[in-house]
Specification:
The protein is an alpha/beta fold. The protein is built from twelve helices and nine strands.
Length: 427
C-alpha cells in the first residue's frame, strides 16, 4: 500500500510538472496564429544551432571613424581598445542564460523602393531551451558586404536571444536574397517597412513551430543605421495605416542613430571630413534608388571613387574597412565634387529633399517608451543627431524618452556600452 502511494505521488508530481512546463502548451503564451500577419509568411531555407562562445560576434562590430589611412586620423579620437572590447564582451557572456542559440534563415516578401514586391531574406534567433519573454525586432547597423548580414553570419545582436527572446533580423533590401539590387541606404520608410514585414511574416512561423512567447508586446532594438531605422519602425507601427494596431510596443532601444541625415550631411559639408567615408557615396546611391528620375550620381563623385564605386559598393564583396582603404581619404573634398557640396545646385537640391524626407519628422511624438543612447564622442554618427532629436521631443513635450548621452568613446566602443545597458534592462 505504501509503495502504491509513493508511486501515485510521483505520477501526480510528474503530471503537474508536465502541465506547467510543457513548451508547446498554447495557453502559456501568445497564440501567434490569432495575430494578423498581413498575408506575409517567412519561409525557412536553412537552420542550425549556434554556440555564441565559438561565434565570437563581438569581433564584428559597427565601424569607428576611419584611422587607417594617412589623412584619416581624427583629432582627439579615442581608439577602440581590444582590452575594453574583450572585457565588455566577457561581461555580456556572463549575462547570458544559455550559450546555445537556434538560427533559422528564410525569405519573405516586402515592398522595394520602386513600390514593387521584392523577395528578401533575414534570420530568426531563439534560445534552444527555456521560456521566451518577448519578440525583439532588431534593425542591424550599416554593412557593405553580403557576408556580413544576419542570414550569412551570427551578428552580435543575436546574443539577445540568449537572454530568453526571439530576435527577428532582416538582411534589408540589397543583401541576401535581394543582393542583386541596390541597397536603398537610409531610405527610412522603405527599410522600416522591410523590418516590419519580416516581423509580420515570422508570426505564422512561430505558430507552426509552436514556439511560445509569454508576452505579445514587441521590443524594438537597433544601433547606428539600426537606431534610426528602429525609430522609424516605431513611427510606422504607431502611425502608418498599413501597420497601425498590428503591434504593441513595450520599448524601443535605439542607439547612435543618424536620425537626421540632412543635418548629418550638412555637418559633413561644414567640417569637410567624414568619419565613415564609404557611407557618403552609399547615401547618395541609396537616395537615388527608387526616384522617378534617379540622381546623376556620376556628377557627385570624384576619382577614384567615380570609376570604382560600382565595384566597391554595388558588388557587395567588400567590408566597409576595405572600401575605406580603397577610397584612401576621409576628406570630403576628395570624395565629392563641388556641385555635391553646393545646396544651390539642382541635383544637390533634389538630394537634400530626399534626405529631409528620410529624416525623423520634427513632429513625431512616440506613444511607446524610448531609450535613446548616443556617445558624445561619436564621430562616425555625429552627436548632433541625438541633439536635434532631443530638441524635437522636448519641443513637443515628449516625456516617455529616457536619454543616455555621455562620453562613451567612439562608435564601436559605445555600441558595447549600449549593449551592456540594454542587457541589464532585459535580463
Amino acid at each position: 500500500m505504501m509503495k502504491n502511494k509513493i508511486l501515485f505521488s510521483i505520477w501526480l508530481l510528474l503530471m503537474v510538472c508536465f502541465t506547467s512546463c510543457h513548451h508547446d502548451e498554447p495557453t502559456l503564451g501568445v497564440d501567434f496564429s490569432q495575430l494578423d500577419n498581413a498575408g506575409k509568411r517567412f519561409v525557412p531555407y536553412s537552420e542550425e544551432e549556434r554556440d555564441v562562445r565559438e561565434e565570437e560576434p563581438w569581433n564584428r562590430l559597427p565601424e569607428d571613424a576611419a584611422s587607417d589611412v594617412q589623412d584619416m586620423a581624427v583629432p582627439g579620437r579615442r581608439p577602440a581598445s581590444s582590452i575594453t572590447i574583450t572585457d565588455m564582451a566577457r561581461g555580456l557572456l556572463e549575462s547570458l542564460n544559455s550559450y546555445k542559440v537556434h538560427q533559422v534563415c528564410g525569405t519573405y516578401m516586402t515592398t522595394g523602393a520602386d513600390g514593387e514586391p521584392v523577395k528578401v531574406s533575414g534570420a530568426v534567433f531563439y534560445p534552444k531551451q527555456g521560456r521566451i519573454k518577448n519578440v525583439i525586432i532588431c534593425s542591424h547597423y550599416t554593412v557593405t558586404a553580403d557576408y556580413e548580414v544576419p542570414s550569412q553570419t551570427f551578428p552580435i545582436e543575436a546574443l539577445l536571444a540568449s537572454l530568453g527572446y526571439v530576435v527577428v533580423m532582416p538582411d534589408y533590401i540589397g543583401y541576401g536574397a535581394s543582393k542583386d539590387r541596390v541597397h536603398p541606404y537610409l531610405q527610412a520608410y522603405v527599410t522600416a517597412g522591410t523590418v516590419i514585414d519580416m516581423a509580420l511574416a515570422v508570426r505564422p512561423f512561430l505558430a507552426n513551430r509552436k514556439i511560445v512567447v509569454d508576452n505579445e508586446e514587441v521590443i524594438l532594438f537597433g544601433y547606428s543605421q539600426g537606431g534610426a531605422t528602429g525609430l522609424f519602425v516605431q513611427l510606422m507601427m504607431e502611425q502608418s495605416a498599413a501597420y497601425k494596431g498590428l503591434f504593441k510596443i513595450k520599448c524601443n532601444y535605439c542607439g547612435g542613430g543618424p536620425y537626421n541625415i540632412a543635418r548629418t550631411y550638412d555637418e559633413t559639408v561644414r567640417t569637410r571630413t567624414t568619419g565613415i567615408p564609404y557611407a557618403v557615396p552609399m547615401l547618395i546611391l541609396g537616395m537615388s534608388e527608387g526616384m522617378a528620375v534617379p540622381l546623376d550620381v556620376d556628377a557627385f563623385f570624384r576619382e577614384p571613387l567615380l570609376s570604382h564605386y560600382k565595384e566597391w559598393l554595388l558588388s557587395k564583396r567588400y567590408a566597409g574597412s576595405q572600401i575605406t582603404r580603397l577610397m584612401g581619404t576621409r576628406n570630403i573634398d576628395k570624395i565629392l565634387t563641388p556641385m555635391a557640396l553646393d545646396r544651390s545646385q539642382p541635383e544637390t537640391k533634389r538630394l537634400y529633399r530626399a534626405l529631409a524626407y528620410n529624416s525623423i519628422p520634427a513632429n513625431f511624438v512616440p506613444e511607446a517608451p524610448v531609450y535613446m543612447f548616443h556617445s558624445m564622442d561619436d564621430q562616425t554618427v555625429p552627436f548632433i543627431n541625438a541633439q536635434v532629436q532631443h530638441g524635437y521631443f522636448t519641443q513637443h513635450g515628449v516625456n516617455n524618452v529616457t536619454y543616455d548621452f555621455g562620453h562613451y568613446g567612439e562608435h564601436a566602443d559605445a555600441f558595447l556600452t549600449f549593449m551592456k545597458e540594454v542587457f541589464r534592462k532585459l535580463k
